[in-house]
Specification:
The chain is 32% helix and 19% strand. It has helices spanning 14-23, 32-45, 56-66, 83-90, 110-116, 136-145, and strands at residues 74-78, 95-99, 101-102, 105-108, 121-127, 149-153, 161-162, 165-166, 173-175. The strands form three sheets. It has a five-stranded parallel β-sheet with strand order 2-1-5-6-9, sandwiched between helices. A two-stranded antiparallel sheet has the order 3-4. Helix 3 runs parallel beside helix 4. The longest helix has 14 residues, at 32-45. It binds pyridoxal-5'-phosphate. The site of pyridoxal-5'-phosphate (PLP) has 13 residues, from helix 3 and helix 4.
C-alpha cells in the first residue's frame, strides 16, 4: 500500500468559497476573503498587522527586505529547516551562519547563539519545527542585548504556542504557511 506524504485538510466549503470569490469580480487578491484572513489572524492571535502573501517563501523574502538585509550582513539560521528560510536571506546577499539543533530536538540550540554573533550579525531566524516552540525568552533576551532582529519562521506553527503566547507574535516579524502539508483544522 502506498502511504501518501500528506492529506490536505478540507473543510468542505472550499469550492463554494472559490465560486463566491470569482463571482465577487475581485479575483486578483485583496478581496473579501483576504480581508477575512487578515481579521481572523489579527483578532484571534493579537498579531499587530497581517498581510496575506502568495506563500510563506514570499513572506520570508519580504521579511529580509523589510529589515534591509544587505550583502555582508550575517543572519543566524537553523541548519535544520526548509530551503526557503535560508534562500530568502541569501537572495539579499546575506552570509548565513548556521546554528545546529539541540541533541534531542530539531529546534535550534539557543546555548550556541551567543557564540555565533559577530559585529556583522543583523538577525536571528528561528524555526518552530512541527509547531514546537523554540525557547523564545532566551532568543529574545540575546537578540535584544545585541540589537538584532528576530524573524519567526512559523510556517509549521499556526495555532501553536510558547507558554500562552501564540507563535509568530514574539519576534519582530513572522511568516506562516498555508501549504497543504501544514496542519490545519476547523476553528
Ligand atoms: C520551515 C518552513 N519554512 C518555509 C516553508 C515554505 O512555505 P511555503 O511552501 O508556504 O512557501 C516551509 C514549507 O514548506 C517550511 O516548512
Amino acid at each position: 500500500m502506498k502511504i501518501p506524504f500528506n492529506k490536505p485538510y478540507l473543510s468542505g466549503n472550499e469550492t463554494r468559497y472559490i465560486a463566491e470569490a470569482v463571482q465577487s469580480g475581485k479575483i486578483s487578491g485583496d478581496g473579501l476573503f483576504t480581508q477575512k484572513c487578515h481579521n481572523f489572524f489579527e483578532q484571534r492571535y493579537g498579531f499587530k498587522k497581517c498581510l496575506l502573501t502568495t506563500s510563506c517563501t514570499d513572506a520570508l523574502e519580504m521579511a529580509a527586505i523589510l529589515i534591509d538585509i544587505k550583502a555582508g550582513d550575517e543572519v543566524i539560521i537553523p541548519s535544520y529547516t526548509f530551503v526557503s528560510t535560508v534562500n530568502a536571506f541569501v537572495l539579499r546577499g546575506a552570509k548565513i551562519i548556521f546554528a545546529d539543533s539541540t541533541p534531542d530536538h530539531p529546534n535550534l540550540d539557543v546555548h550556541q547563539l551567543e557564540s555565533l554573533i559577530t559585529p556583522k550579525t543583523k538577525a536571528i531566524v528561528v524555526v518552530h519545527y512541527a509547531g514546537m516552540a523554540c525557547d523564545m525568552d532566551a532568543v529574545m533576551q540575546i537578540a535584544n542585548l545585541n540589537h538584532l532582529f528576530v524573524i519567526e519562521d512559523a510556517a509549521q506553527a499556526i495555532d501553536s504556542y510558547y507558554h500562552d503566547r501564540p507563535l509568530g507574535s514574539i519576534g519582530h516579524l513572522a511568516a506562516f504557511s498555508f501549504h497543504e502539508t501544514k496542519k490545519y483544522h476547523q476553528w
